[in-house]
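=== Given protein ===
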Amino acid sequence: MPTDYFANDPRTNHERMLAGDLYVADDPEISRRQQRAVRLASRYQDACAEDSGAARTILAELLDSVGEGVDLRPPLYVDYGSNISIGARTFVNYHLTALDVARITIGEDCQIGPNVQLLTPTHPVEPGPRRDKLEAALPITIGDNVWLGGGVIVCPGVTIGDDSVIGAGAVVTKDIPAGVVAVGNPARVVRSV
């Protein structure tokens, strides 16, 4: 008999997800929200080829907030979109994967290289809960004027401070302070800017 992880928790899986608690990812309400995001991301990509005004409208519907002058090149891959905010004048190159189970905040005037991954989901290390499709998430915060080089991976719960640069291909597993350059896997600070 499967374990009832939430016997005394009246919240929905979506409510547990938004609270950052363990929840069952294979849930009909959550699936509907993900399908909405897939449809809007697809419409956004199509609109970018035809009408930048329509594309901007679709992006504003998909994401929680989009600052003035944001340039986001498709394709864009998100879980929900509704947990993502992007500050003014930020440029996002092709193939951003932003798994926004928890909030993803991208500051103003950022440069996001191609194939960047912002990954908020976490999974249990224990095999039973993982097999039972439990997951949780931790938010990601990218400060103002941050440059993430191509292929950077930002892990759950990470904050990157203002004016920092993350070298191409780095895997950011821990917070990075403001005003530094960090490179490598795992990313480590190599100098100030």
The mean pLDDT is 96.
